[in-house]
Amino acid sequence: MVVPRLTTLLNNSLTVSQAKQIHAQILINGLNNHLAPLLVRQITLSTSTHSRIVAQAQYLKLILYQLQNPDAFSWGCTIRFFSQHGQFKEAFSLYVQMHRLGLCPTTFAVSSALRACARIECRIGGVLVHGQVHKYGYCSCVYVQTALVDLYSKLCDMVTAQKVFDEMLVKNVVSWNSILSGYLKSGNLAEAQRVFDEIPKKDVISWNSMVLGYARVGNLDQACSFFQQIPEKNTASWNSMISGYVDCGDIESARSFFEAMPQRNNVSWITMIAGYSKCGDVESAQKLFDQMGEKDLLSFNAMISCYAQNSQPKEAIELFNQMLEPNVNVQPDGLTLASVTSACSQLGDFKFGPLVESYMNKFGIELDDHLATALVDLYAKCGSIDKAYELFRGLRKRDLIAYSAMILGCGINGKAFDAIKLFEEMINSHICPNLVTYTGMLTAYNHVGLVEEGYQCFNSMEDHGLVPSADHYGIMVDLLGRAGQLEEAYGLIRTMPLQPHAGVWGALLLACRLHNNVELGEIAAQHCFELEPDTTGYCSLLANIYASVKRWDDAKRLRKVVGERGFTKIPGCSWMESI
């Protein structure tokens, strides 16, 4: 009686709580080996929210590890579950463990492992699984072969992808779409067009791939032509066009497609929010976010990222706190924490760094390179340079953003020679610097007063196709001014190809105060007064210059202005705020 009753229950969708109750009955009645595979299967088939998926994943692993007689079916179902829900590293790790147990993997375990390797671009893992495809005789399985085509396509190894594709005895539309996607990803539109023309029966994904492929390379006319020819457009068709216009910076055309959509999904809204974020229109992004119905994790991530990327860190943190409230209860992921960490970095709020670890433990979030880089930036800017270095050295792949964050951190914290060493390491790794990198380098030279080296660094920006911003000029003026080269600093300002802001003139005024240069101090102060008339701190600086040369009446006059209007601090260096 117990077995039929439990079997019936195992044919229904289960919550984790229900699964635990059934599991308890299975264990009590000594039916673990008989019914555990069915329990695993049913848990993997049950529809869940994001928070339930995390709980399901943890519970599935618990069941697997407690099986006295591990079976390929249970392990295969679990691997497929992890792969289907984006936990690709864990999926591949489970596949490796399954192999070590000596179990013969099922075809869906193999295809799921290949899918995981494709998503994390793990070539070595993918090639090893490919070898097992031959070992276990799965070369005729269309699902496994299609997964192989998808793997090599995502690795941009189109020679191998095409070879596997040509060897397939049976091809379905997914196989064709995989090879098509590979050529589009590698930018080979001619081959993509050839494959598209040869597809015996195109589906909407085939058409959407072509739309997205041409949109990615900026050929929106051709993308639009394909879009208009799609027999039955779906939401993804419209989203492809919106994404294309967003990537090209044409937010108005993107909005027109968005408004014309017969039906929108969260991707539509998120793509538009990201588009407005990219062009700095936070207000429009906020309006769209507020208009959304049910907001999921990706929606919150898009808006938090928008705030963080557009210098509104307080709003980013407020929204993060809002998503954690019991009535909202959206569980954050690594991307959420990375954006909030970036916001805290802008505020110089060191306290959030240790909090990240507690959030990671609470929500089961892995420290990936993206989140680690955000923490490098936070710790470096807040003065904890050793902690930043520890995280930086632990990165699997050090990219431009990671190097720039570390170089800037060294620059801010006066570790000029560390910054120089990192810059050389970055160049030797064939990573081209950007404006933030040079901000860090110039800051480093400024901290230790290396004028000639700073000038060489400043001039080398042109070698990398970079045009110095007013902020970079401001650092150079500060460097020259502190070294007493006031005329050279003033001359540099006069040769600027763009309008100097108050930060540039303020740097010269500070240098004039340091070296008691009245003539240039008056010129610099006049420009500061015009650009920031409400900041009385400039009056105070000029008054101090007058006092240093005993021009007491002028000093008294300016101090009276400060007394009447109240003292207003000179804003922190604008080149720092822009990072």
From TrEMBL:
Annotated Pfam families: E_motif (PF20431), PPR (PF01535), PPR_2 (PF13041)
Origin: domain of life: Eukaryota
Repeat positions for PPR: 71-105, 172-206, 234-268, 296-330, 399-433, 434-468
Single Gene Ontology BP annotation: RNA modification
GO molecular function ontology, one term from the record: RNA binding
Keyword entries, A-Z: Repeat
Protein name from the UniProt record: Chlororespiratory reduction 4
Species the sequence originates in: Lithocarpus litseifolius
